[in-house]
Amino acid sequence: MHKCIHCNVTNCEYHDKDDYCCASEIEVGPHYANSSNDTICATFKANKND
Questions:
Q1: Is the backbone of residue 35 left (phi > 0), alpha (psi -120 to 50) or beta?
Q2: How high is the pLDDT of residue 7?
Q3: 25-49 per-residue burial string, b: 16 or more CB within 10 A, e: under 16
Q4: Cα dihedral 47, 27, 39, 16 in deg (nearest 10)
Q5: CB-based burial of residue 15 (10 Å sphere; 0-12 exposed, 13-18 middle, 19+ buried)?
Q6: Structure-derived torsion over alpha carbons of residues 13, 14, 19, 25, reported in degrees to the nearest 10
Q7: N or C: which end of the chain has fewer CB within 10 A?
Q8: In the prediction, which pLDDT does 49 show?
Q9: Strand, helix or coil at 37?
Q10: Cβ(9)–Cβ(50) under 8 Å?
């Protein structure tokens, strides 16, 4: 069983080859979002290899 969450942002440091985010914790915001289109992943960190 995979303990990471599905994510298809391939240029993030926490992305693994199976399309999962494997950060130890994630932060999604902003707190005033009204729909999923209003949210962002504050944990995103650009992969230095890209």
A1: beta
A2: 94
A3: eeeeeeeeeeeeeeeebebbeeeee
A4: 40
A5: buried
A6: -160
A7: N
A8: 75
A9: helix
A10: no
Tokens of 10: 């391939």
Tokens of 2: 């995979």
What's the residue count for the chain? 50
Comparing CA positions, the residue from 1, 2, 21, 3 lying closest to residue 41 is: 21
Residue 14 near residue 21, CB atoms below 8 Å: yes
Please tell me the pTM assigned to this model: 0.76
Please tell me the predicted confidence (pLDDT) of residue 4: 86
pLDDT in tens, 1-50: 557 899 999 999 999 989 999 999 999 999 899 999 999 999 999 998 76
